[in-house]
Amino acid sequence: MSAPSRVSHPIRVIYGDTDQMGVVYYANYFRFFEVGRNELCRAREIPYREVEAEGFILPVVEAQARYQEPARYDDLLRLDTWVSSVGRVQLRFDYELYRSADDTLLVSGHTVHACLGEGGRLRRLPDRLRAALLTARGE
Q1: pTM across the whole model
Q2: Which residues, 6 or more positions from 90, have their beta carbon under 8 angstroms from its beta carbon?
Q3: In this structure, are residues 91 and 85 in contact, taking their beta carbons and an 8 Å threshold?
Q4: Residue 137: what pLDDT?
């Protein structure tokens, strides 16, 4: 098995992302993580919109972030996203967010997602999505 394939995406911090101290509000990092997930799926030619159109949703069932340094208004950031595990009905994305100017790691984290079908019932990940994510995982 090779190393997971990372997808990098730039993010510019806008004023609306910050609190009164001019730093990114802690919960907004999870919005950035969502951008990373969408960009990774798009890079693997499986836009999330298509997953939903096939009758599946991937809600977050676990989320974690470790804050090391603050991001500030107008910072240009680089978000690296990768798939660290793919199971039958769950998958995990990992994230590292860097300040582009000095390559400082600001936040690392992960989200775990369950695959649900009609009526909110657990379902196996769709074959096409599972194959694309296993490829991203390096398997």
Answers
A1: 0.92
A2: 61, 112, 113, 114, 115
A3: yes
A4: 65
